[in-house]
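Summary for the steering committee. One of the milestones for this cycle was to obtain a three-dimensional model of the protein with flavin mononucleotide bound, which we needed before selecting residues for the alanine scan. The sequence and ligand used are listed below.
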Amino acid sequence: MKDLRQFLDMLKKNGELLSITDEVDPRFEISEFLRQVDKAGGPALLFEKVKGNSARIAGNLVGTRRRLALAFGAQSDLELLEMYQKRRARRMTPRTVRSGPVKEVVIKGEKKVDLNALPIPTYHEGDGGPYVTCGILAAKDPVSGLRSMGLHRLHIKGPRRVGVHLSNPPISRFAAEAEEKKKPLDVAISLGVHPIILLASIVSSPTEDKVAIASSLMGSPISLVKGETVNAEAPADAEVVIEGRILPNVREKEGPFGETSGYYFSDESHVIEVTAITHRESPIIQALHPTVHEVSLLGGPAGEAEMTRMLKERGFAVTALAITPSSNRTHVAISIQKKHESEPRQLLHFILSGVPYIKHAVVVDDDVNVNDAEDIEWAVATRFQGDLDLVVIPDMRARSIDPSKKQGNFMTKVGLDATVPLPLRERFKRITVPLEVTEKVAGIVSRLWGKGVKSQ
Ligand SMILES: Cc1cc2nc3c(=O)[nH]c(=O)nc-3n(C[C@H](O)[C@H](O)[C@H](O)COP(=O)(O)O)c2cc1C
């Protein structure tokens, strides 16, 4: 099975990994390295010498589309999406094994377990403490027994105490069901896995086993090991697993934490009591900076593939779909081949009510490139009238981290129909020169200037 170390080796071979050999402080410095190198479009980082700890930290792993494609073994973006769709459609069941590398070191017992032994970064000045941002919680539904997982921020509060932010299913639902029975929920939290497992953990599918989704996307069954102290499983090849119990009817202040939204956010959150830590010898901890491109890449292409499938299954003539990169997974642009005037509105209602994390959506014709922000803005500027083409759906459930949310955790969703009215097609013909002229000029400019230019 593929693991984090194999992925790091592959990045290295492809010139996509930079080792930082200077000593780096997990308090703010790791965070700032990740941010600066990401802003410059740089490689993944491996921090070899972490202040006060022998473990290493890796970050910005799938920080570009090329590195995400490498995780899937794809050569291009297009191939990546095709591979995603194909593998997602193939069902694969994870298998349970007796042991694995993550059991090389087993620490259990109240006196021995100490989370402070792990190098957990503090990301921003206003954060309430160190945060695990890449912790995948795996648990079982106390009612149906369904196994699944989710990515949840974890506030390290003490040697065995963790605040966990649970606002999304399936884990929030499992915890609520356990609480109804006045029981704790057992969890196994993995830190440091192959990026496909991380990506699968945030696929929006509350009723499926996301470990099975990860297996399908990986193309081979994930091997799981049982917990030492909990009724939960984790990937056998993880770097570190934290075992524990989400306590029923306990809420404590968690945060603040500088979020993916770019703002600090704190909440009254659940608490995990840690019962064991298992890890590989000399583990590598993964750090996910909340505002780097890796966050949108983990959710983006997968979310795009999931939404495209959902819309096509409903018969919408979607030609392309893109979650716009700086929107923190809240904006989507969709191009369609419109056949009937009602289609954009129907699509907007469907996507805005069906996908919880999408707040704003725009529908354009298929002559607009949804991956080009300038093209989308041009379509809105020239094909949209506020009184005719706007869809407003008030009082939908908000994302907890949205600082503009309304009292009671509500938000308003908005859709823009920026398609051309069917009878007016001729008026909206784009201005162009013949294609052969475009190509000829592009060739000459590229030869003389050494750079490619944007064609039509
Ligand atoms: C970077 C990142 C961090 C996340 N952190 C949390 C979190 O702290 N709490 C939470 O409930 N969900 C969090 N999520 C979302 C959950 O992992 C969720 O299970 C997953 O996205 C699928 O559900 P959804 O897409 O319908 O929200 C996070 C997602 C991402 C991409």
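Key point for the committee: DSSP finds eleven helices and 22 strands in the chain.
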